[in-house]
Amino acid sequence: MLTVIKEKLTMIIVFIVFYLVIEVLTLHNLGMGFFPDYLILDILIVIFIGTIILFIKSRIFSQIYLIFWIILFNILYVTNITMNNIFGDIFSLEKLFLVSEANEVFSWSFISFKLVFIGIIITLAFISCMTIINKLFKSKRAKVKNYYQKSFLIILISWIFVLNSFILSNYYIKNQLKINNESFPEAFYLTTLKKSAFKRFGMLTFYYKEIDLHFIDTNEDNVVISQDVDKTKYHGLLKGKNVITIMIESGQEFGINPYLTPNLYRIQEEGLHFTENISVNKTNISEQIGIAGNYPTITSEQTSLPFSLPNILKDNYLTSYFHDNNGNFYNRDTSLKHLGFEKIFLHDDLFYERLPNWQDGWRWCGDYTLDSITIERILPYMINDHENFYSFWTTLSTHGPYNDNDRSNRDLFIKNGYFKRIDEVEKKGFWQNPLSHDQEGSFQYKYYQAAMIDLDIAIGKIINELNQKNILEDTILIIYGDHHVYYHDLHLRINNLTASEYYKMDKLYDSILYIWNPLLNETIKNDFGSTKIDTFTSPYIIVPTLLDLLGESYYSDWYLDYSVFSKNYIPVFYSHQLNSLMDNTLYTVDVDEITYQVKKLQQQERADFQLNCLLILRRLNKINKLY
To answer: What is the pTM of this model?
Structure first.
């Protein structure tokens, strides 16, 4: 019996060592050092997992069990590094609810086969160690009678020790949990500052706490939602105006050009142009931020969202949503109803006929129906000259990939003369391709620009329709981007950066944000001397700013931030994707430490930023209680 115990303990020790190797590789590749702050918690969980083999009499099945876990750890290693390289994110259990969406847009180009190779080598090395252990103890083995009775006491003592150590350690650490010396619920910390939590707890403890949160945990505190109303000097300036909000897929400012996108350029120049705007979130999150002014870090099945624009405006406005995609993608067919839209137009509502590029969904190879065509199906429902309307359109043409093949929209762009127009403007010196040294990258950048040309044509059709109905001046146009151009790592290659430099927000995540209305344009220009606003902003300003301009009643605590014109406005952006906070100068994943700064700042400026981060986190904690 002693020989069997020695053999299994040896297997458990090797198992722990290999886990630590995988954890070190994971944290190092994520830029988090080598070991978590509370390594003891991970070690206790690994011991607990390993001691399960004491229940398994068969050596072969014991080894298969441990190999299974090593493979799982390697999958988490590859997944976390891959997600971080592409999106600046890490894997969490909530991602399991987006498996179908991820599968549809998945591309093998996302996978680093170097990481896969390392994972395979680690697994093979572990299997080799198990084989060696098997050979070392083979000659010493004797048949053990009453194995389970004899091993029970050892297992019981081991588990009592491990579980008690874990519970006590976890209790102590939980009580020490603070963000910049301020206490927050652990569930909030875990979901809001995921990378900080991952670094603090370690990989296994992080996922254990996630399981506890999603399947066991309950609300830890009661947060009071204030009924304070924040009004600015512009409150009611645009009362009764129509609203059209357009969220541009991968909408970044380098796609705006006076010769190639004249309509967007006009709106940029005439309207409120937020020059220091950043957005880096998944499309569905950015979409909801533009509609509801917030997005929770702890989600639930909440169906009543009285703070969304459609729900606030529904008594006096016809509210409509448009997007050329399936309703089950990002669960829009449910979430849009919760957001309160009266009319919802998705692919099957816009295109009754069968399209050759649509097979019950997109193939996500770039051959989407052009925005300039889709808008013609949308316009009859988007603009209404008989009653006030609020219309929201999520575009599609600029969605990647941007491939040079006949499965993309390449041939259509050629036929429409988009590439030719780009070449002509480039020859005149009014457009440059920053990837001209790279044949593949040069085409991909040019493709994105062509897609922006097509979008601009669609924008022009909206403006023309408003003009024809004589309601252009009675309409507010809001145009913003959901995130950066991440396909093919274009955002990195354009700026000559690597995936490990994802935190350089000043170079990577600039995003379009324009608000246009003749009266508003004139008023702001008279008050500030320009319609260019260099205050740091993000899409979180859209809803509170719009409601204030419309003169609508709302509670300030409903939204993550205030109107951009409010004295209470907080110039900090929280990214759900990066699980971090930033402005145009500073970036942090935990508030306590500054990960990156664009320029040298005074200590007071850093302290002001950290205070603003705390203010945003307090508001976000309240918003979680709304859902």
So the answer is: 0.88
